[in-house]
Amino acid sequence: MLKVTQLLILCVLISNFGFSQAGKVFDQLSHTSKILKTERHFAVYLPPDYETSQRSYPILYLLHGAGDDQTGWVQFGEVLQITDKAIKEGKATPMIIVMPDAYTNRLGYFNHPDGAWNYEDYFFEELMPYVERTYRVKKQKRYRAIAGLSMGGGGSFMYALHHPELFSAACPLSAYIGPKTVQGIKRFETRNNSSIELSDADAEKYIQNHNALFLINSMTKKDIQSVRWYIDCGDDDFLYEGNSLIHIALRKKEVKHEFRIRDGGHTWTYWREALPDVLKFVSDGFHQY
């Protein structure tokens, strides 16, 4: 009888140990934003040892594309399975991953030209402080990274270029590099977000602050290179040209960066395959060289 009891205890311990080796995702978390005057949803991935340790973790902000919300990387990107596997295989360090929602009320990660929806202010002044106060996060620049796909790739570019002092690494995937023309941004705002017609001057100012190519050409090499860059876009992607121009601009400025062109298009298959390399890249920066 004693041996049976001991065997049962051993099985329970083994079962609990196996369970503890899996991370957890919560994809319906929320908090109140005073800036946006609404409840904001976000998702969080917590690494396998989060609940059994007292340590603090590096953090990756992972941005979804247009048409998705904070559940995109969870449901379609399989962030839980891919990150658990990368950590288990030693290719990624345990980290917290935060996935905000940028598709409620208005679309996008930036402050809108009419001033009525200041999402970028919300991200830096409310979401980031809330998350890094709620979870055991290492708050130094070297332990914070950002990545995203498509529209979220554009967010990754802009956030890291606007605030290079905050991020150790940025990984835009199949990125929208920003508006190119005055008429283009005016049409986008009229169609998607704003009932106020923009002046040409306001639209031009917006482009200068939200086009990655313009920012790279106008910023100092020191500021740009203070962020480690990993840029990835498929050879069949309709955003291939913009990403290639970014690569050329960085080369001309002699800014170190990683640039990947792989076989594929603007698809979740492509981004799922990219995620392990993104996790490895940001982890390399989180470690001590």
How is this fold's topology laid out?
Blueprint: H1 2-20, E1 24-33, E2 38-46, E3 59-63, H2 72-75, H3 79-88, E4 96-100, E5 103-104, E6 106-107, H4 119-134, E7 144-149, H5 151-162, E8 169-173, H6 182-192, H7 200-210, H8 212-218, H9 221-225, E9 228-234, H10 240-252, E10 258-262, H11 268-286
Parallel strand pairs: 3-4, 3-7, 7-8, 8-9, 9-10
Antiparallel strand pairs: 1-2, 2-4, 5-6
Task: Give a short overview.
The chain is an alpha/beta fold. 44% of the residues lie in helices and 19% in strands. It is globular and about 55 Å long.
Total DSSP helices: 11
Main β-sheet: number of strands, strand sense, barrel status?
8 strands, mixed
Number of domains: 1
Quote the average pLDDT.
91
Low-confidence stretches: 12-19
DSSP helix fraction: 40-55%
Lateral arrangement of strands in the main beta sheet: 1-2-4-3-7-8-9-10
CATH architecture: 3-Layer(aba) Sandwich
The termini sit apart by: 54 Å
Number of strands: 10
Using the coordinates above, name the CATH class.
Alpha Beta
CATH superfamily membership: Alpha/Beta hydrolase fold, catalytic domain
Categorize the overall geometry. Answer: globular
Structural class: alpha/beta
Q: What value does the Rg take, in angstroms?
A: 20 Å
CATH topology: Rossmann fold
Order of helices and strands: HEEEHHEEEHEHEHHHHEHEH
